[in-house]
Specification:
two-stranded antiparallel sheet, 135 residues, mainly alpha, 2 strands
């Protein structure tokens, strides 16, 4: 699967993988897999991680090498759909199912979750250019 990943992706994955390779054997604990994947921006569920491990016949108490990790990351990236995740999140906010959410509610959710935004980033938010009160 590495042939489908860019060299930059492989390098980034290797760097993060190495942080969890505590014994410097080129392997990480299967129990650390979900953490390493999330550090790289993937958002697997525990069930998805278990399926990846099962697919590769790896016990949860075992270790996996970098090649297997690359394969798992590639498979995870193929099944994740960021646009669908955004639609799902927006639907959770749009409780009245109108197809719109109040700008104030979106702003509150975005500023309470994730990283804090600088003043400059705040001024570039989509609601700054929205001439109406809903997105």
């Amino acid at each position: 699967m590495a042939k489908f990943l860019s060299q930059d992706q492989i390098n980034e994955f290797k760097e993060c993988f190495s942080l969890y390779d505590n014994n410097h054997k080129g392997k990480i604990k299967a129990s650390d897999l979900i953490t390493v994947m999330r550090c790289l921006g993937a958002s697997p569920t525990p069930s998805e991680v278990d399926k990846h491990l099962l697919w590769h016949k790896i016990d949860r108490r075992a270790e996996l090498d970098f090649s297997t990790f690359l394969n798992i990351m590639y498979r995870q990236m193929q099944q994740e759909d960021p646009q669908q995740e955004i639609r799902t999140a927006m639907a959770m906010i749009d409780r009245q199912k109108k197809g719109f959410i109040p700008v104030s509610e979106l702003r509150a959710k975005l500023t309470k979750m994730g990283e804090k935004l600088s003043e400059e980033e705040d001024s570039r938010k989509p609601w700054q250019s929205a001439g109406h009160k809903q997105l």
